[in-house]
C-alpha cells in the first residue's frame, strides 16, 4: 500500500524554511510526491513531527520579539 499524501488543503508557506505549514513538506517534496518511492514518502511522513516543532519554535520566537 502506498503512503498517502499528507496534504490537508491548507497550502500556506513559511518562505524562510520553504515549507507548507499545513503538511510540513517543502515545495520540492510536494512537486515530486507522485514520483517518489514509497520508502522516501514514508521518510518524509515520519519527519513531520520534527518539522512541525521547528516551525512552532520559530513562530514562538516571533511572538516573543513583539
- Structural class label: mainly alpha
Contiguous runs where pLDDT drops below 50 for at least 5 residues: none
The number of distinct β-strands equals: 2
What is the rounded distance between the termini? Answer: 46 Å
Tally of contiguous helical segments: 3
Which word captures the global form?
Answer: elongated
Q: Based on the structure, what is the oligomeric state of the protein chains?
A: single chain
Name the beta content range: 5-15%
Would you list the SSEs in sequence order as H and E?
EEHHH
CA radius of gyration is 13 Å
Core attributes:
66 residues; mainly alpha; two-stranded antiparallel ribbon; 3 helices; 6% strand; elongated
Describe what this molecule looks like in 3D:
This protein has 66 residues and is mainly alpha-helical. The protein contains 3 helices and 2 strands, in the order E-E-H-H-H. It has helices at residues 27-32, 38-46, 48-65; strands at 13-14, 19-20. A two-stranded antiparallel sheet has the order 1-2. The longest helix is centred in the C-terminal third of the chain and has 18 residues, at 48-65. It is elongated, with a radius of gyration of 13 Å. The N and C termini lie far apart (46 Å). 9% of the residues are buried.
Amino acid at each position: 500500500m502506498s503512503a498517502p499524501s499528507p496534504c490537508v488543503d491548507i497550502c500556506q508557506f513559511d518562505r524562510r524554511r520553504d515549507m507548507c505549514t499545513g503538511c510540513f513538506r517543502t515545495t520540492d517534496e510536494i512537486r515530486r510526491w507522485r514520483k517518489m518511492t514509497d520508502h522516501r514518502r514514508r521518510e518524509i511522513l515520519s519527519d513531520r513531527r520534527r518539522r512541525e516543532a521547528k516551525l512552532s519554535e520559530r513562530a514562538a520566537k516571533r511572538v516573543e520579539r513583539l
